[in-house]
Design brief:
139 residues; alpha/beta; Rossmann fold; 32% helix; binds [cytidine-5'-phosphate] glycerylphosphoric acid ester
């Protein structure tokens, strides 16, 4: 069967963002489900400095390591480093995205982008987070 772009149909481009530190099952699930909304998935991996500014600590894995891990996931087509939370509109326009997907811990936060793309919040995978993993490893 021919792929949509061979038939002259434009692929639907999906974007999502995240830190993806200590990559875990919840991260895999959001990437898999985000990709199901289109044919091309773009991921913005937040920079180390953005994380430090937001949480006052650096991620366990560097942005290069986190980017390399995300790039190796089969659902992902393209990865870039997200330098600022304020640049979401610019990134969505730059990458010509049709749909922005985020976990529902971000519900409502990106509704202002609905004039340029669809905005979808998916339920988080229960009982797993980077913070919980760090706590478990510490014990
Ligand atoms: N996620 C999920 N289920 C979990 C944990 C995370 O669905 N159990 C989702 C989050 O909702 C998010 C994505 O995985 O959509 C990445 O999560 P984080 O790495 O925690 O990213 P975060 O620090 O929320 O993003 O512009 C956003 C920034 O890049 C920061």
């Amino acid at each position: 069967m021919q792929k949509p772009h061979c038939l002259g149909l434009r692929m639907r481009r999906v974007i999502t963002f995240g830190t993806f530190d200590l990559f875990h099952y919840g991260h895999l699930q959001i990437l898999k489900r985000a990709r199901e909304f289109g044919e091309y998935l773009i991921v913005g991996v937040s920079s180390d400095s953005l994380n430090f500014a937001k949480k006052n600590r650096y991620p366990i894995y560097t942005q290069t390591e986190r980017r390399d891990i995300i790039e190796s996931i089969k659902y992902v087509n393209y990865v870039f480093i997200e330098e600022s939370l304020e640049l979401k509109r610019q990134y969505c326009l730059q990458y010509k995205v049709d749909i922005l997907v985020m976990g529902d811990d971000w519900r409502g936060k990106f509704d202002s982008l609905k004039d340029i793309c669809d905005v979808i919040y998916l339920p988080r995978t229960p009982s797993i987070s980077t913070t919980q993993l760090i706590e478990k490893i510490r014990i």
